[in-house]
Amino acid sequence: MSRPFYVTTPIYYINDVPHLGTAYSTIAADVLRRYHAVRGERTFFLTGTDEHGLKIERVAKERGLAPKAFADEMSAPFRETWPKLACAPDDFIRTTDERHERWAAELWKRVAASGDLYEGTYEGWYCVGCEAYYTEKELAEGNVCATHKTPAERVREPSYFFKLSRYQDRLLELYRDHPSFVAPGSRLNEVKSFVAGGLSDLSVSRTTFSWGVPVPGDPRHVMYVWFDALANYWTVLQDDPERAALWPASLHVVGKDILRFHAIYWPAFLMSAGLPLPEQVFAHGFLTFGGQKMSKSLRNTVKPTALADAFGVDTLRYYLMRAIAFGQDGDFDVHDLVARYNADLGNALGNLLQRVLPFCHRVFEGLVPPDDAPPEEHEALLSGVPESLRMAGEAFATPAPHVALERIWSALRDANAYVDRSAPWDAAKKGDKPRLAGIVVRVLRLLESVSVALWPVMPGKADELRLQLGLGPVSPSVGLDLWPSGATALVAGAKLGEVAALFPRIDPDRQAELIASLGLAPPAPAAVAVAAPSAPAAPAASAPAPGAPQAAAADQPPSIAYDDFAKVDLRVGVVVAAERVPRKDKLLSLRVDLGEAEPRAIVAGLALSFAPEALVGKRVLVVANLEPRTFGKGLVSHGMILASGPSESLTLATVSGEPAAGSRVK
Ligand code: MSP
User: Fold this and answer.
1) Do residues 513 and 588 both lie within one domain?
2) Measured from the CA of 232, which atom of ligand 1 is nearest?
3) What integer is the mean pLDDT of 634-663?
4) Which of 263, 302, 50 minimizes the C-alpha distance to 167?
């Protein structure tokens, strides 16, 4: 039996309210936990609030409240918000819980017992916003913190130090022997080079304020808030021996801003305490909102629960998991959300059900018809579906939920193409019941599989879909792998449910109404055409060779020396992710594997010719040494994809066979 899947979110600071950024971490963790639950694994999902430290003490004071009263008030919205976003944590830890403080003290004692703590005086810089120590080198001019844009404070106080320096080699060994400890891989490189650069001992207690867990045996000190906070992942399990067996955690989902704490300090504390290390720390990217950084005021405006109320909680979850490649920064664009709702959810999924289910009610008395005369001629269109769903499972496990969703939609595209080609309406018109039954049953069974594969991301809608198929909700149970395997509950004669629109279309008026109700801006005016680097480059204007006819000069660029050609670094790339660019209807934003540490971001003018999903997995030819080109805020292309033809019907340049990503083209 596999180890249980224990997943955590960061515990959130209570000086803020739950916002889209924190909702993103929580929803991602919930999605991954649901995936593992569907696979029949025992799962445990933890979230909570980080309530100690100078930042909280100060905000409480400003509010005229005792820190604990403030914490009680501010922790509640977190606990209440997550279920509204269909997140179902098994426990909610607060660092002011007695159970947490007791076990955090125990962790401290274990670290002390290894001889890794000593007393000294900390003198240096501290950013209260980050609750982190910085060297002068890490701060901008005026000792300003890069994240908070406010000056760090000068601190000088007695402190306990943790001998972090002692763990440099063991940490480097960890990253070498278990490279999946930090994901995505590009983040591992960052962490490695930070550690390889040398580690100083870490101040792990404070004496100039008192809002923290008292240091065992020395109540003049409180623990450094990150020591106390990181401990939560372990403390929450300790009071119950059955839960204690869940340690080590399988996955800590964190934002990239707090990776250092999780990938360096946390394993070092655990090594010191003689405890096993978590399997993986996954750093996701940062969300912007409509291209803007999530300022405090914006965070307060765009409440995730308001978005869920306006568009449906499952739509919000789908959009966050699909539109933002997990591990990379991304933009939350409410207009793009509506576009995806109508296209992906309404057309590709909802409509597919509408295309077949009503036949069952009209022709087959609301029952699953027998399929003893299968329509064979178009079945090839569905032959890739089991593989797409298998790959979706693999992608959830990676974890790459955005890829998983792409695979599921690839199955849905195949199913829609199958319906287009096999035209069940013709069979219905002709009264050819066996043929109609054959088509309809195939699509219903595919939707049955999709309902399970989609459940981790859209539990409510997946169950609604199942209800229309006459099936009960997805209910994971330990030891029972529910992942689609070809088995079906839709046997002939089974009763189907009532037909209802799963994703009623949001028309432009309704869209404007919903967006206005959120206090957001109306859609931007139509995109200005932007020539993307992938468009076949126009020949450079050049003076015609003496005596050469004008037309030939325009069609035929002048010849170049081999050395000039050799300057072009042409490579084979594999597209690993592709998505539309909001408000730029010709552009796709791609991630292309060129065999480098991290896939390249390439913006290409391919959107009029290719659906983003159709490009994933394709081998393309890339000019890899073009100067980066900017297409708008945060949208930078680091290469050019070669293609030929007008922008509505481009053909990609490619290579035969399957050369490795990054192979040179000469
Ligand atoms: N309390 C610490 C975590 C301690 S874990 C032992 C903390 N809290 S936080 O509330 O400031 O941030 C929590 C998480 O929210 C972080 O992972 C952070 O990356 C994430 N996000 C905050 N704003 C975000 C975006 N705009 N986008 C995506 N995630 C962001 O740090």
Assistant:
1) no
2) 6
3) 83
4) 263
pLDDT, one tens digit per residue, over 471-504 is 999 999 999 999 999 889 999 999 999 999 999 9
**Pair 152, 207 in one domain:** yes
CB count within 10 Å of CB 406 equals: 24
Q: What letter does residue 559 receive in the DSSP assignment? A: P
As a whole number of angstroms, the distance between CA 279 and CA 7 comes to 10
Contact assessment for residue 203 and residue 161, using Cβ atoms and an 8 Å cutoff: yes
pLDDT tens by residue, 372-400:
766 788 888 999 999 999 999 999 999 99
Tell me the residue range of the domain where 359 lies. 329-523
Confidence check: pLDDT of 218 > 60: yes
Of the ranges 128-132, 362-366, 547-551, 644-648, which one carries the lowest mean pLDDT score? 547-551
Q: From 249, 284, 319, give the residue that closes a domain.
A: 284
CA of residue 303 relative to chain centroid, distance: 19
DSSP sequence for 177-205: H-GGGEESHHHHHHHHHHHHT----EE-E
Instruction: Among 8, 9, 12, name the best residue to mutate to test ligand 1's pocket (greatest count of ligand atoms within 8 A of Cβ).
Output: 12
Q: Is 637 exposed, middle or buried (0-12, 13-18, 19+ CB in 10 A)?
A: buried
Q: How far apart are the first and last CA of the chain?
A: 50
Is residue 323 one of the residues assigned to a domain? no
- CATH code for position 353: 1.10.730.10
CATH of the domain at 111: 3.40.50.620
255 φ, ψ (degrees, to nearest 5) = -80, 155
Same domain, 19 and 145: yes
- Mean of the per-residue pLDDT values for the chain? 90
Q: Is the peptide bond before 248 cis (omega within 30 degrees of 0)?
A: yes
What are the structure tokens assigned to 98, written together? 């007695």
**Do 145 and 213 sit in the same domain of this protein?**
yes
Per DSSP bridges, beta strands 651-652 and 643-644 are antiparallel
**∠ CA 198-204-206 to the nearest 5 degrees?**
135
Strand 218-223 and strand 132-134: pairing?
A: unpaired
Specify the residue with its C-alpha closest to ligand 1, atom 21: 21
Report yes or no on 317 lying in a domain. Answer: no
Q: Kindly state whether residues 280 and 336 are assigned to the same domain.
A: no
Q: Where are the alpha helices (DSSP H) in 324-471?
A: 334-340, 351-363, 385-397, 401-422, 424-430, 433-454, 459-468
Distance 344 CA to ligand 1 centre (A): 29
Choose one of 258, 284, 310: the last residue of a domain: 284
Task: Indicate which CATH number applies to the domain containing 582.
Answer: 2.40.50.140
User: Above 60 in pLDDT, residue 548?
Assistant: no
Q: Check whether residue 254 and residue 360 sit in a common domain.
A: no
- Parallel/antiparallel/unpaired status of strands 280-284 and 251-255: parallel
The tokens for 201 are: 């001992």
CA 413 to centroid of ligand 1, rounded, Å: 36
- Cis link prior to 399 (omega < 30° from 0)? yes
Q: How many domains does the chain have?
A: 3
Residue 545 within any structural domain of the chain? no
> Helix crossing, 459-468 with 433-454: angle to 10°?
160
Report how far ligand 1's centroid is from the alpha carbon of 294 (Å).
Answer: 12
Residue 364 sits in the same domain as residue 249? no
**Phi, psi at 420, each rounded to 5°:** -55, -50
Is 396 part of a structural domain of the chain?
Answer: yes
Q: What percent of the chain has pLDDT over 90?
A: 76
* Alpha carbon of 155 to ligand 1 centroid (Å): 25
Are residues 615 and 505 located together in one domain of the fold?
no
